[in-house]
Write a structure and sequence with these properties.
The complex is a heterodimer of chains A (115) and B (111). Chain A has 115 residues and is an all-beta fold. Chain A contains no helices and eleven strands. In chain A, β9 and β10 form a beta hairpin. Chain A is globular. In chain B, the strands form two sheets. In chain B, strands 2, 4, 5, 9, 10 and 11 form a six-stranded mixed β-sheet that branches. Chain B starts with a strand and ends with a strand. Classes of the chains: A mainly beta (115), B mainly beta (111). The interface between A and B is medium-sized, with 26 and 25 residues.
Chain lengths: 115, 111
């Protein structure tokens, strides 16, 4: 149980284009999903918190117009990186949490490379 | 700002040795989780602790939550090369709150 998937697992795109990453909870309903960014050999940095049916809450310093988050259902959240630039290249990881639970379950991550 | 400090940042040991990783904060946690992450993958939840003084064991891994719920430790007995990875502690300050991660401890167990 508690499986979270991400798609795609890796993507290469050209500078200026947009990329969408999907995060799905496969065997439970996730009232809250989180998006993280991780640089090599570093810990996870929270980008935003997304609750089903409402607007995402972004962490300080994260551009909400650049990183669009949608949480349309209890099993799916998407992160769209708009007008991507090489500095957006990173490992993006989502997580999902059941209502009222402390624990978060993480997806396998998406490696984004912007050329 | 509520911060989690992990130490050490990096640990290299020989197979069979023991190791301990620490996670500390000046704030009281409502819960603390330990994760293990391998390169190119997402973190995998190892344990959740919520009660001050709590000790949980997972095979050769022992997790302890401080009495004041401000610190935690992960102890690995007789480490194996398969224990190699990035160990992350993460805390919440109330149920439903976001996780705040420590800086991580990179563990390398040499055969």
């Amino acid at each position: 149980g508690a499986v979270v998937s991400q798609h795609p697992s890796w993507v290469i795109c050209k500078s200026g284009t947009s990329v969408k990453i999907e995060c799905r909870s496969l065997d439970f309903q996730a009232t809250t999903m989180f998006w993280y960014r991780q640089f090599p050999k570093q810990s996870l940095m929270l980008m935003a918190t997304s609750n089903e049916g409402s607007k995402a809450t972004y962490e300080q310093g994260v551009e909400k117009d650049k990183f669009l988050i949608n949480h349309a259902s209890l099993t799916l959240s998407t992160l769209t990186v708009t007008s991507a630039h090489p500095e957006d290249s990173s490992f993006y990881i989502c997580s999902a949490r059941v209502r009222g639970s402390y624990e978060q379950y993480f997806g396998p991550g998406t490696r984004l490379t912007v050329t | 700002t509520q911060l989690l400090e992990q130490s050490p940042q990096f640990l290299s040991i020989q197979e069979g040795e023991n190791l301990t990783v620490y996670c500390n904060s000046s704030s009281v946690f409502s819960s603390l989780q330990w994760y293990r992450q391998e390169p190119g993958e997402g973190p995998v939840l190892l344990v959740t602790v919520v009660t001050g003084g709590e000790v949980k064991k997972l095979k050769r891994l022992t997790f302890q939550f401080g009495d004041a719920r401000k610190d935690s430790s992960l102890h690995i007995t007789a480490a194996q090369p398969g224990d190699t990875g990035l160990y992350l502690c993460a805390g919440t300050w109330w149920a439903g709150n976001k996780l705040t991660f420590g800086g991580g401890t990179r563990v390398l167990v040499k055969p």
